[in-house]
Write a sequence for this structure.
């Protein structure tokens, strides 16, 4: 009997954190494994392998997606933003700043997924109530907190984003209009 592992590779091109990558992948490769194992972006966590915890949440074309539920080939042609691309040390995204200011994390394992889900929530609902924040984040499990500081962090971010009058942008795309983004390719 022959080798049951897939030897078929298909090319996938994705824009991740403002950088274009073209890689050959097995059709069954999950987006989370493309990000972590192929591209080396380990900020996206794998928590449960069952799509329950949300630790692997990233933005695909601006919308929150659990990357353990999406095949890499489904992301072909898409823009993906991971926790590494949402802000920088010099320019924190307001949600990252909120987590810092309002102590929205404990162990930090779920934090990348919560931040990405919160960024999408605030894109859809710029001025959410506490109940809307809790409902918007219910797909991400935090085993350490009672969520109150996470809610405070997201509320803080909403207030910061409103006071910035739309000047907040995801760091991965911030320099692209000015030609500052790297457009190198990585091929495997």
């Amino acid at each position: 009997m022959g080798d049951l592992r897939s030897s078929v590779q298909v090319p996938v091109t994705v824009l991740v954190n403002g950088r274009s990558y073209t890689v050959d992948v097995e059709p069954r490769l999950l987006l989370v494994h493309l990000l972590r194992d192929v591209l080396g972006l380990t900020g996206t966590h794998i928590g449960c392998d069952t799509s329950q915890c949300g630790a692997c949440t990233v933005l695909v074309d601006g919308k929150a997606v659990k990357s353990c539920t999406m095949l890499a080939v489904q992301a072909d042609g898409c823009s993906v933003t991971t926790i590494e691309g949402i802000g920088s040390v010099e320019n924190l995204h307001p949600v990252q700043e909120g987590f810092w200011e309002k102590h929205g994390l404990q162990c930090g394992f779920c934090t990348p997924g919560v931040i990405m889900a919160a960024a999408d929530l605030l894109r859809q609902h710029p001025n959410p109530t506490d109940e809307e924040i809790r409902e918007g984040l219910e797909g991400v499990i935090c085993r350490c907190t009672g969520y109150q500081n996470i809610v405070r962090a997201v509320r803080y971010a909403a207030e910061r984003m409103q006071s910035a009058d739309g000047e907040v942008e995801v760091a991965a795309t911030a320099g692209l209009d000015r030609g500052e983004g790297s457009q190198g390719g990585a091929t495997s």
Q: What stands out?
A: The chain has a mean pLDDT of 87. The chain has two domains: 10-85, 94-163.
